[in-house]
Amino acid sequence: MLKTSSFTDKLKTFPQYVIPQHLLSQWIHHVMRWQGGCVTHWAIKQFVQHYQVDMQAAELSKPTDYKNFNQFFTRTLRTDARPIAANHIISPVDGVISQLGAISQHQLLQAKGHEFSLTALLGGSTHLSTYFDNGLFCTIYLSPKDYHRIHSPITGYVREMTYIPGKLFSVNKRTTQVVPQLFARNERLICILETAIGKVAVIFVGALFVGSMETKWAGTITPPYQGQMQSWQYLPNELSLQCGEEMGRFNMGSTVILLLPPNRARWLAQYEPDSALRMGQALAELAT
Questions:
Q1: SS3 (DSSP) at 227
Q2: What are the extents of the domains in the chain?
Q3: Average pLDDT estimate for 81-96
Q4: EC (predicted)?
């Protein structure tokens, strides 16, 4: 039964290898910004009902409040909707934990029985890979129904940001079990924060139909989907972020990977794969 299921998953995933991933995602980018009036409002209403989106938490709670689907998808929340846990490292997003644990020998767990390279995830940076080896990681999947803004998990400063071009495979559970090195192959944006516990990495992982990734300080990073790596360096104290402050946003569902340095924190015991998270929830406690 296990072999049949595995073969079925591979068969269902195969089309992602051959479809024009970036072209389709760029098309979605334009569709999301189409202002279709009552058609757009109807589509938003159907989406809310189908995915059971909690609109009571949104700053604008009615489908008619949004001119296009992208405004709805990147909606802001009420100021009291996501309390920020004090004295903890918080979840940077709403989502579900795919995997979490310790980084060992420069490897992270992608899915049961499948690991991927920390060095490859970090765009080949051996310096950062060495720094985070034996530290902690948490991979959080954002489904279409989730709030799609990313927030700082801890107070600190943005010191560097790197865009790494790549594929745009889906990041759902089936694909993570089938596509080797998925998160190190997909397009991603690495944000390195300097904090009281040292460097912390918040990695935005692109995915199929993710129309764009953007940050609060640099604006839209994609599209266009660039064919080469780009890096930005920031001066100490130039870009400060309070714990819970917005960093950026996704369109459509995707994944965020959080990396913490060794011996500086520990995941709270109640969390495991498939645990649901809300932005602002305590995710890790500082080591004493």
A1: coil
A2: 2-73, 89-286
A3: 96
A4: 4.1.1.65
Task: Out of 25, 41, 88, 94, pick the active-site residue.
Answer: 94
Q: How far apart are CA 224 and CA 231, in angstroms?
A: 16
Dmax (CA) of the chain? 56
Q: What is the torsion angle, in degrees rounded to the nearest 10, for the CA atoms of residue 156, residue 145, residue 56 and residue 69?
A: 90
Q: Give the model's confidence band at 1: pLDDT under 50 very low, under 70 low, under 90 confident, else very high.
A: very low
Is 254 an annotated catalytic residue?
A: yes
- pTM for the complete prediction? 0.91
Distance of alpha carbon 45 from alpha carbon 60, whole angstroms: 13
pLDDT: which is higher, 255 or 10: 255
Distance of CA 238 to the CA centre of its chain: 24
User: 98, 151, 152, 212: which one is catalytic?
Assistant: 151
- Looking at the DSSP bridge assignments, the partners of residue 117 are 107
Kindly report, residue by residue over 200-258, the tens digit of the pLDDT. Answer: 999 999 887 776 889 999 998 888 777 789 999 999 889 999 999 999 998 776 899 99
Give the burial class of 72: count Cβ atoms within 10 A of its Cβ; 0-12 exposed, 13-18 middle, 19 or more buried. buried
Amino acid at residue number 241: L
Alpha-carbon span 185 to 208, nearest angstrom: 12
CB 13 within 8 A of CB 6: no
